[in-house]
Design brief:
cell membrane; 17 helices; mainly alpha
């Protein structure tokens, strides 16, 4: 036997995964500030802790709500939107997209199931565009950080973007384009392990009467609590850095003001700078405090959500490149229009 044992590759991967965790960044930020600029350690941490504690009640309610919806099987209700006439499906898909309690991996099998059942691409596109923008926890967190006008504006933008994309796709397909939008062998059963098809069974709202559903509720409660606390802790720590170190003049010069230019810039920047819907509100609060316009903030948030990795993966894995390009184009256009309208309203 060798004196030195071979390193365990799985333990190395686990250690690397731990280092890449948001918790690592949450710890490293104050450590680095204390080393490089000790005088600003208290301001950075104070901004982060104060903001985080202010959203704890919202986090608790959001975690409870999403766990309940998952345990009840609310996905089956969402599936009902994709039955009937095309116009009805587009409206319901855009409206219910923001209510779907899906995790990232469930988006793909859900959409695959819809396409397998023959749902039109127009309704699917409406759901695709509205779903990443808002859900019950995101609505509550956005309201607690940016205020209810911004949260309601984002929810309206989600529905409007879904309708915009759904009817555009319907028109394009009726014009004889996108006649074969799906990739070969793209629709079928998912192997991601997310559970049974959302099209089977009916929701059971009295989850406390079913032991299996109670187990799901407890598991989802723990998982989502850890997820939200982890990402919001990171978001507020980054907000503390932003407010402390980024001059307001820089933000105001780039995405401040009331013209279309800052709104368009925010939409373009929002795609490569994607931040999930839980991180974005605190950082946008910091940017708006530094001079970012309300319209630019809305544009940035909409574009960032549409360009999220799960959202784009769902589209890319199931449809051809032309549909994917249309999805991105609709997302950017919708983000700019949302920013312009929101700027005019506020």
């Amino acid at each position: 036997m060798s004196e030195f044992a071979e390193p365990d590759q799985s333990s190395w991967r686990q250690s690397l995964s731990t280092l890449q965790s948001p918790w690592t960044i949450v710890v490293l930020i104050p450590v680095m500030v204390s080393i490089l600029d000790f005088s600003n350690l208290v301001p950075v941490v104070d901004i982060a802790v104060t903001a985080f504690l202010g959203t704890v009640p919202v986090i608790a309610f959001a975690v409870f709500l999403i766990a309940y919806l998952k345990a009840a099987g609310a996905e089956a209700v969402i599936a009902e939107a994709f039955k009937g006439k095309e116009v009805r499906m587009i409206f319901l898909a855009a409206l219910l997209g923001g209510l779907a309690p899906f995790c990232s991996c469930e988006v793909i099998p859900f959409i695959a199931g819809l396409l397998a059942l023959g749902a039109p691409l127009s309704a699917v596109m409406a759901f695709w565009l509205s779903s990443p923008l808002i859900d019950p926890p995101t609505l509550l967190i956005t309201a607690s950080v940016l205020g209810w006008p911004f949260a309601v504006g984002k929810a309206i933008s989600a529905v409007a973007l879904g309708l915009f994309g759904g009817f555009i796709v319907s028109y394009v397909m009726k014009a004889g384009l996108l006649t074969s939008p799906l990739k070969q062998n793209s629709v079928g059963c998912s192997s991601c392990g997310c559970g049974p098809s959302p099209f089977s069974g009916k929701p059971v709202w009295a989850v406390w009467k079913d032991n299996k559903r109670k187990d799901v509720f407890v598991a989802e409660l723990k998982t989502n609590a850890l997820f939200l606390v982890k990402w919001l802790a990171l978001a507020y720590m980054l907000e503390g850095l932003l407010i402390t170190y980024v001059p307001a003049s820089v933000i105001a010069g780039l995405v401040g003001g009331t013209g279309i230019g800052p709104i368009a810039i925010a939409a373009v920047v929002g795609i490569p700078a994607y931040l999930n819907s839980y991180i974005a509100p605190p950082l946008l609060a910091g940017l708006m405090e530094q001079g970012m316009s309300a319209g630019a903030a809305m544009s940035f948030m909409v574009a960032g959500a549409v360009s999220s990795i799960p959202a784009m993966a769902a589209v890319w894995s199931l449809v051809k490149r032309a549909v994917f390009a249309l999805y991105i184009g609709l997302g950017i256009t919708g983000a700019i229009l949302s920013g312009i309208v929101f700027q005019l309203v506020v």
